[in-house]
Amino acid sequence: MKQFAILACACAILIGSIRPGSAGDLIPEDVADAMQSADIVILGEIHDNPQHHLVQTEAIEAISPSAVVWEMVTEEGAQRLAQKAATNPEELSRILRWAESGWPPLSMYYPVFQATNAPVYGAMVPRAAAQAAMKRGAATALGADAARYGLTVPLAPDDQAAREADQLLAHCNAIPEESLPQMVAIQRLRDAVLTRSILTAVEETGGPVAVITGNGHARKDRGIPTFLSRLRPGLKVFVLGQSEDGVINGEFDAVIDSPTIDREDPCKAFE
């Protein structure tokens, strides 16, 4: 039987059994209560784990957000969706141009989209913009907002080194070390763009706002929450991380653990 480990405030561990592949009993009551009292609920994930999206679906249903910010959706895609609501997954995929996005199949995410009628806010950095930022610097992608979001300020040396080491490991030690600072800068850019979309959603809808994103952007020690705490310290933020077989990096308010899925060795792509 599958089990989920909950690390409340990254310290206390609670374990409960669930029915395989089921939704509706995946989130402990105390975690759901904490989500419901927050202004912003950041729902982390490992992108290709279907169970993580069932947890997000249950969380969205519990939160009843006024808006949902998506790392996987561009601003243009969200605008198209606002103009023409989708009634089936094929239409949603076409509106969002999901097949071109490079994300896992939309079938994994479709239950999350179905969980609420709240407006969708896009926060994905388009591939062309990311490539341009790699050449000219991540701060240039935000223009006048770069300073506000801290992109013009270098990270502390220890923090920079730790993030570069994470990027190297994530890319199977197969990318040139001279490219690592740019990879870290792009990650910070994505954090900033997500934060900007979150704040826009709060201003336009009043909240609460849910956020669908990877664990790396969700983590409290270096991701979106660090931007929010600096820009809007009065907002109450709850962060859920999702691990596989107990493995996760970073700090979260709670962590829900799922079994590791079968997947091809990602390092094969670098061979």
Strand order within the widest beta sheet: 5-4-6-3-7-8
* Major beta sheet summary: 6 strands, parallel
Would you tell me the structural class of the helices and strands?
alpha/beta
CATH class category label = Alpha Beta
Helix coverage percent: 40-55%
C-alpha-based Rg, rounded:
18 Å
| First-last Cα distance | 36 Å
CATH architecture: 3-Layer(aba) Sandwich
In DSSP terms (H or I, runs of 4 or more residues), the helix count works out at 11
The number of strands is 8
Could you list the spans in which at least 5 consecutive residues all have pLDDT below 50? 1-23
Mean pLDDT score: 89
Notes on the structure:
By secondary structure, this protein is of the alpha/beta class. The protein has one domain: Rossmann fold. The chain contains eleven helices and eight strands. It starts with a strand and ends in a 13-residue tail after the last strand.
What's the arrangement of secondary structure elements?
Blueprint: E1 3-8, E2 12-17, H1 29-36, E3 40-43, H2 50-63, E4 67-70, H3 75-83, H4 89-96, H5 106-114, E5 120-122, H6 127-136, H7 145-148, H8 157-170, H9 180-205, E6 209-212, H10 215-218, H11 224-231, E7 237-244, E8 254-258
Parallel strand pairs: 3-6, 3-7, 4-5, 4-6, 7-8
Antiparallel strand pairs: 1-2
